[in-house]
Amino acid sequence: MISAPDRHPHDVLVIGAGGAGLRAAIEVAALGASVGLVCKSLLGKAHTVMAEGGVAAALGHVDDRDSWQTHFRDTMVGGKMLNNVRMAQLHALEAPARVRELEGWGAVFDRTRDGRILQRPFGGHTHPRLAHVGDRTGLEMIRTLQDRAVAMGIAVYMEHTITHLTTNPSGVTGAFGYRRLDGDAVVFPAKAILLATGGIGKAYEVTSNSWEYSGDGQALALRAGAELIDMEFVQFHPTGMVWPPGVRGLLVTEAVRGEGGILRNSDGERFMWQYLPEDRRHEYAATDEEARTWVEASSASRQTDARRPPELSTRDNVSRAIYTEVREGRGSPHGGVFLDISYLPADHVRRKLPSMYEQFKELAGVDITAGPMEVGPTTHYVMGGIRVDAETGATTVPGLFAAGEVAGGMHGANRLGGNSLSDLLVFGQRAGAGAAARAASIADDPYMNPVQIRAAEEELEAPLSRTGGTDPYRLREQLQATMQSLVGIYRTASDLKDAIARIGDIRHLADDLCVPGGRAFNPGWNLVFELRNLIDISDAIARSALVREESRGAHSRLDFPATEKAWVDRNVVVCRDGETLVVGTSPIPPMPKDVRALAEAGGGA
Amino acid sequence: MANLLMRIFRGSPKEPGTFAEFEVPVEEGMVVLDALHWIQAHAAPDLAVRWNCKAAKCGSCSAEVNGRPSLTCKTRLSDFDLDEPITVEPMRAFPLVRDLVTDVSWNYEINRSIPPFQPPADTPVEEWRWQQEDIERVQEYRKCIECFLCQDVCHVLRNHEVERPFLGPRFLVRAAGLEMHPIDTADRTGYLKDDGGIGLCNITKCCTEVCPEHIKITDNAIIPLKERVADRYYDPIQMFWRRLRGDRSSAPAAAAPAASDGGDRSS
Ligand SMILES: Cc1cc2nc3c(=O)[nH]c(=O)nc-3n(C[C@H](O)[C@H](O)[C@H](O)COP(=O)(O)OP(=O)(O)OC[C@H]3O[C@@H](n4cnc5c(N)ncnc54)[C@H](O)[C@@H]3O)c2cc1C
Ligand code: SF4
Ligand code: SF4
Ligand code: FES
Fold first, then answer.
1. Number of structural domains, chain B?
2. What integer pLDDT is reported at residue A298 of this predicted model?
């Protein structure tokens, strides 16, 4: 029954059409190479569309004291010094140009009084830095990039899922996958492949991420021989919805706190004062009045000497605070805490946070201009990812590139809000250029080994031809429950070992997955391949978390509560040896002196 | 908690369509998409449904719920009488793929024909200055999440009434966003009149009624565009007399009351 799959050869194949993939494809096309862009959903529906708060870039429009150096320092401090220094530097340097470029392509950001791009404050950023459009910045960004890609005539393969990369001894040769609408196999021979597939949130029960976030790119890279770094760093965003059950985990943008939202426990106490790390306390307001002065100045886009409210501490810290408040019995009725913005004028709240206003009104029946929201931590983002070269996005496998959330290094142990959208633009552009250059250096047409293609095709068919076996929905529930309870905000060696054992059992059961129906738009069948990736990635997270015997950023070990100097210059690295994952550490080269001085500079300079 | 009866369209061009019935346990705050997910996880793993954000931000989950084009992730079960079954069908304007999934690729094709954003060649982007008031209208158009519900409900597309190309409300909104962009220099009036088929819209406003982003598609996007086309292509004195006589049949656009048009450039 196996007929020859459709073939779409390109110089560069970009897998993923979020911000990173689109920006990369635009770069490849601008350099004159042939590019194909593949995505699992319809074009324009990638995760990037959901981003709310904004894109970080030191434009200095609201506070002219801002500079790339300050942005760099904030990023390193937020990442607990584990960031790839070169990436953090390039990111801070190039983000302003990338944001202006979007405007040049038709994006319409909110404005300052003098008619320039407006910037809003966010957690961990010294100055107001996030260019935004109300709370739908991601939509503006993806639509602008999408329009640009369409205007350039880029070939887009929507609703195609890549399940395998093919390789030969000198690197990648192409990608294999299926078309969701009919389930038919498709091959994409390519001289270079760029992974921009996003994150892994579906490994957890409570997440702000959609079905697409099954770690496909990370797992494909592992199987092709690439390395993952920092996988123990999973960001639990402090504010997800907790009620009603159907929307548990849905994101409540940090912009609510950026605009002045106050966190309180069931005793009405503004608890964040107690959770500020001592060495950073001087950066935050000392009193309610000072915080209020800051909020008023910032909503009028005025420069102020008042310091920011304690709610704008970094995400790892706010999440631990909320978790602790709830565990100690001071939570809200549905197991979260209260987030209140209703003390500001209702009009102002509706204008600044229109989609949050709608989201709570429509989905929870709560008017956020009249009373508090209930919020709690939700799995949001993975800092770790495929190891890449900062300049070009090249992975350790020749011809394989990566950019965006799927790549590791840029954000270290904790990402600052707004730094992802800018990351997508900066490194999407760079990896696009890197992949185009690689393609240009190869004369021969790529040749995909037919044996590898046939094996991939057989793997696709297997779950449909089995009778009796494991149901993928149940198995995913098991995996998610394991990760949620054993590899969450707080971790211990015994929990992690338990998780690794359970993931091993789940891996066995996954050999025997079975689904009814055919290949045409069959979500159960599609889930089989996502589950395979989720298992690999969950395993990588749990094993990495066990190796890092300290607490840093988003990785909190109850059995190793201190942040250890000995761990600041080491990445945990995962690679694959046949069917098993191998975990080790690799040293981070020392920072040049001047860069270290910049990264460690104190105060709000 | 109570159980609810859901009637879900199932079928594909190859199999005849039927309504399958499922009993779904109802939890507080549940939306239609939650019920569909419950069915997938417990009764019909191969039920074809599109979704992504579950937060009315991506426009993937469009379907017809009890006949009304809706985002299933935003449609609360508590808005219905749960003693009656809830019926979910795919959007009717587009060819069926399977179950609740339709082939919406037509939208992506027609979008390609719209002349793209064209900034002035001589002003560098660093020097662009606009006031917030001047962009509010354009930002309204740019809220569109491409759910295609307006395309689904527009009778011109739904009943395939014409052979001529017609952008449909979604892409008239997009064209309006480009035309009224504070710095765009292209002129799309000729395109809108001919290839865009703007004259085919007879301002029934059904599109505006279903838009989950509350974009005033007809008043704020289509009518101002029609006015631009009319100003450009029809004799203004003639239009004046027609307007005086209240003759709407031949030129509905020019006869309709001018919508306030904050983001407009003078053309
Ligand atoms: C609710 C929410 C709000 C956020 N708000 C902000 C914010 O305000 N500021 C900020 O900086 N960051 C924010 N983030 C984070 C940021 O949006 C994401 O990290 C970022 O959009 C990821 O972009 P990406 O291009 O890497 O991937 P995505 O945009 O997720 O795109 C991934 C693409 O890969 C495709 N893909 C995946 N697997 C495959 C496969 N196997 N085959 C083919 N295609 C595949 C998908 O279909 C998709 O097109 C937010 C995230 C969420 C969830
Ligand atoms: S107003 Fe025009 S575009 Fe909208 S539904 Fe009616 S005919 Fe279609
Ligand atoms: S204009 Fe409204 S209804 Fe139409 S596609 Fe956009 S969001 Fe959907
Ligand atoms: S799932 Fe995104 S709009 Fe409904």
1. 2
2. 86
Evaluated on CA atoms B31, B32, B33, B37, the torsion sign reads positive
Interface test with A, best of B53, B123, B131, B173 (most A CBs within 10 A): B53
Tokens 């990402």, residue? A415
Q: Domain A11-236+380-440 carries which CATH code?
A: 3.50.50.60
Pairing verdict, β A55-56 and A10-15 = unpaired
User: Tokens 């907790």 identify what position?
Assistant: A242
- Residue B262, domain member (yes or no): no
Helix H segments across A328-392? Answer: 346-352, 354-364
A257 counts as catalytic = yes
At the topology level of CATH, where does A241-377 sit? Answer: Flavocytochrome C3; Chain A, domain 1 (3.90.700)
pLDDT digits (tens, 9 = 90+) for B11-30: 999 888 999 999 999 998 89
User: Does residue A292 carry a catalytic annotation?
Assistant: no
CA distance linking residue B246 with residue A327, whole number of Å: 70
B38 and B123 inside one domain: no
The CATH number of whichever domain residue B96 belongs to comes to: 3.10.20.30
Beta bridge partners of A407: A386
Nearest residue of B to residue A156, measured between CA atoms: B108
Where are any strands of DSSP class E within A278-336? Answer: none
Please report the ipTM that was assigned to this predicted complex: 0.92
Nearest CA to A376 among A206, A200, A136?
A: A206
Cβ–Cβ < 8 Å for A306, A290: yes
Q: How many CB pairs under 8 A join A and B?
A: 168
**Cα angle vertex A135, ends A133, A141, to 5°?**
50
Residue A460 neighbours by CB distance under 10 Å: 22
| pLDDT tens figures, A554-589 | 999 999 999 999 999 999 999 999 889 999 999 998
Put simply, the answer to whether B57 touches A100 (Cβ < 8 Å) is no
Q: What is the pTM of this model?
A: 0.94
The per-residue pLDDT for range A100-156, each reduced to its tens digit, is: 999 999 999 999 999 999 999 888 899 999 999 988 999 999 999 999 999 999 999
Q: How far is the CA of B152 from the centre of ligand 2 (A)?
A: 10
Supply the range of the domain harboring residue B49.
3-102
DSSP B54-98: SSSSS---EEEETTEEEETTT-BGGGS-TTSPEEEE--SSS-EEE
**Any residues with CB less than 8 A from the CB of A581 and at least 6 apart, and which?**
A222, A536, A539, A540, A543, A574, A575
Beta strands in A99-182 (DSSP E): 119-120, 130-131, 155-157, 160-168, 171-179
| Of B60, B83, B102, the domain-final residue | B102
Give Cβ neighbours of residue B174 (< 8 Å, ≥ 6 apart): B111, B114, B141, B144
Most B-contacting residue of A214, A355, A362, A366 (CB-CB within 10 A), to test interface: A362
Residue B110 CB less than 6 A away from ligand 3: no
Q: How far apart are CA A584 and CA A566, in angstroms?
A: 15
Question: Among positive and negative, which fits the CA dihedral A431, A437, A442, A446?
Answer: positive
Q: Same domain, yes or no, for B115 and B240?
A: yes
CB A580, CB A565: distance < 8 Å: no
